[in-house]
Amino acid sequence: MDGIRDILSSVEFNGLADLLELGGPVVLLLLGLSVAVATIALAKIIAFVSAGVGRHQPAREAVQLYLAGDAPAARRRASGPVSAQIVRYAIDASAAMAPEAARDATEAVAILRLHRLRSMTGLLDIIAQIAPLLGLFGTVLGMIEAFRALEDRGASVDPSVLAGGIWVALLTTAVGLAVAMPASVLTAWFEGRLESEEIAIEGLVTSLFTGALPEERSGRRGRGAHEADTVPTVPPAGPATGSPRPRRPIRSR
After folding, report:
1. Per the count of CB atoms within 10 A, which of 17, 43, 114, 129 is most buried?
2. CA 14 centroid distance within chain
3. CB 171 within 8 Å of CB 194
């Protein structure tokens, strides 16, 4: 670690202009991608907070009220987070159409809402994949330039010239990795949250249409476990929801 610290401390830049001058257009492009990553991440965080991703208590309580036979109270409780909005739609749909059609319509709405929440996460994944390749491309171009300059010097070869050209060329790879790593972490985090949301909504919709009352488990499997884990129990009374049918996973991909 001390050796790496010494190397990094020996590389001094007077500003962004020096970094761009050494790295060339490849570094400029990578810096643009880094701005895009930060912008997308901020927009997704705001969208997740606004949609109430991860907040399922209102939806769970609405399902419990509906299965207990209090549909008006369930409609009033089903507001706020996206999961509660989907439950509200399922309650309204079940009152307006046959159970099979209501469930199909609810699943279609859930897929559409989750697809909107997933927008731009694919772009983050693309940036995470191409940033290291762009960095490597810049390194190859820098190595070509370094060896060309070495050839022009003929017999009077100075090893420091080659060494200087190599470290400047490797600069683009370092910048590419610096952009790709946070983009990859953010992509995995957003996808994990959406996967948990899909599972939670699927469980709530299934509970509403099959009459299995969701109850939160007392234990969690770990940090990645979601509050949507439920143990189905049969409610004492509730509105007719139609005959149960096999669960179909709700997927927005």
Report:
1. 114
2. 36
3. no
Q: Can you tell me the distance from the alpha carbon of 82 to that of 46, in angstroms, rounded to the nearest whole number?
A: 14
Specify the pLDDT at position 241. 43
Record the tokens describing residue 16, joined without a space. Answer: 């962004």
Instruction: Tell me the CA distances in angstroms from 134 to 26, 169, 172, one per residue in order.
Output: 7, 12, 8
- Looking at per-residue pLDDT, the higher value among 166 and 89 belongs to 89
Letter string b/e over residues 129-148, b meaning 16 or more CB atoms within 10 A of that residue's CB:
ebbbebbbbbbeebbeebee
Task: List residues bridging with 58 in a β-sheet.
Answer: none
Q: Mind giving me the DSSP string for 153-177?
A: TTT---HHHHHHHHHHHHHHHHHHH
Specify whether the CB–CB gap between 137 and 92 falls below 8 A. no
Contact 114, 197 (CB under 8 A): yes
pLDDT at 9 over 70: no
Smallest Cα–Cα separation from 251: which of 171, 197, 178?
A: 197
Is residue 6 within 8 A of residue 118, CB to CB? The reply is no
* pTM metric for this prediction: 0.71
Amino acid at 205: V
Integer Cα distance of 51 and 110 in angstroms: 13
Grade residue 143 by pLDDT with cuts at 50, 70 and 90.
confident
Q: Which residue has the tokens 């699927």?
A: 202
- Token match 């050494």: residue? 22
Distance between CA atoms of residues 83 and 166, nearest Å: 54
Q: How many CB atoms lie within 10 A of CB 14?
A: 8
